[in-house]
Write a structure and sequence with these properties.
Belongs to the isocitrate and isopropylmalate dehydrogenases family. LeuB type 1 subfamily. By secondary structure, this protein is α/β, with parallel strands linked by helices. It contains 12 helices and 12 strands. The strands form 2 sheets. It has a 10-stranded mixed β-sheet with strand order 2-1-3-12-11-4-5-10-8-9, sandwiched between helices. A two-stranded antiparallel sheet has the order 6-7. Bound molecules: nicotinamide-adenine-dinucleotide (NAD), 3-isopropylmalic acid and manganese (II) ion.
């Protein structure tokens, strides 16, 4: 089974190397690596070279690091956006857990036990709408079809059925027409196909506050592309660090793209102190959602939890451990 690796830039290669070590600790896999992001711009003149895309199409799954450097801030991201679009990965699952009390900036009595998944629409909205410059300014447009909304909402409802049976749909229906369509469509799908799932609607500003003041009220949160991008970084406060947030990008065909929620972190790249847990947990999601190997996925998640409990933590979590030390501890805990 071939797993394509797209290490990318900054801390991307550092954390992908950790995830590969952990994968090798639970099974035998073939890996194929391709340049991606600013690294690929330097080497091939484009952030997503044709061979990388072809490799991703034929792979069982793709594990990516992150893209972006100080010299190349916007164009590397375009390679990632193109990859998501080309592979039809419209649903981005971003699980968030309060792994351990006292890890983040929020009070333990507020976050203890929080366990939610943000399902972010990943191939539509402002990210792909017509954009440009005019003589006076610039514009981006947000458009969604009912079909685009329904397919990602279905993913959220199904996920809720396997969890605590509750979906929170987040929009800005008091202002945006796309949000009014979003709300109507999600409501209709819920009534028709998922009557057993409890559905609530929240406006995005209110949801942003509730995420950090009452995170336990959430089970599955479904929202459009840009809101999901912003809310998921905010939700890192619940876990304690962006370095603890993995993601799975899925479509209608098997496979998928698995990557940390965080970026290339140029401020700590090369120091050997990046938190590898988000990448390691992304590898666990790869095992679960692309290779259907849930026991191995659960074993990795348990080993990460044990490592955190044992106090082996990188500086973003207030610890002094290095990337390599955390990786070794996770491997030992398997
Ligand atoms: P970032 O996520 O890279 O970093 C934000 C902060 O979190 C930094 O202080 C960083 O040191 C810290 N951080 C992130 N991941 C960490 C980890 N694993 N361990 C410890 N600390 C960690 O966001 P940014 O600084 O806004 O963006 C940097 C570059 O990354 C930009 O070029 C941006 O476009 C890109 N980016 C890429 C992706 C992706 O490839 N999926 C995601 C987000 C940002
Ligand atoms: C993410 C990132 C990307 C996004 C950027 C790098 C294009 O922030 O994966 O969350 O906005 O989707
Ligand atoms: Mn983001």
């Amino acid at each position: 089974m071939t797993i394509v690796l797209l290490p990318g830039d900054g801390i991307g290669p550092e954390v992908v190397a950790s995830a590969v070590e952990v994968l090798a600790g639970v099974g035998e896999f073939d890996f194929a690596e391709f340049p991606f992001g600013a690294d690929a711009i330097e080497r091939c003149g484009t952030p997503l070279p044709a061979e990388a895309l072809t490799g991703c199409r034929s792979a069982e799954a793709v594990l990516a690091g992150a893209v972006g450097t100080a010299a190349h801030t916007t164009t590397p991201g375009s390679g990632l956006l193109r990859l998501r679009a080309e592979l039809g990965l419209y649903a981005n699952l971003r699980p968030v857990r309060a792994w351990l009390e006292g890890l983040g900036p929020l009070r333990p009595d507020v976050v203890a036990g929080a366990d939610l998944v943000i399902v972010r629409e990943l191939t539509g909205g402002l990210y792909v709408g017509a954009a440009g410059r005019s003589a006076e300014g610039a514009y981006d447009t947000c458009a969604y079809t009912a079909g685009e909304i329904e397919r990602v909402a279905r993913v959220a409802f199904r996920l809720a059925q396997e969890r605590r049976g509750r979906v929170t749909s987040v929009d800005k229906a008091n202002v945006l027409e796309t949000s009014r369509l979003w709300r109507e469509t999600v409501t209709g799908l819920g009534q028709d196909k998922f009557p057993g799932v409890e559905l609530e609607h929240l406006l995005v500003d209110s949801a942003a506050l509730a995420l950090v003041s009452d995170p336990r009220r959430f089970d599955v949160v479904v929202t459009e592309n840009l809101f999901g991008d912003i809310l998921s970084d905010e939700a890192a406060a619940i876990a304690g660090s962006l370095g603890l947030l993995p993601s799975a990008s899925l479509g209608d065909t098997a496979g998928g793209l698995f990557e940390p929620v965080h970026g290339s972190a140029p401020d700590i790249a090369g120091l050997g102190i990046a938190n590898p847990c988000a990448a390691i947990l992304s590898a666990a999601l790869l095992l679960r959602y692309a290779l259907y190997r849930d026991p191995e996925a659960a074993a990795i998640e348990a080993a990460v939890a044990r490592t955190l409990r044992d106090g082996i933590r990188t500086p973003d979590l207030g610890g002094t451990a290095t990337t390599a030390e955390v990786t070794r501890a996770v491997l030992a805990g398997l």
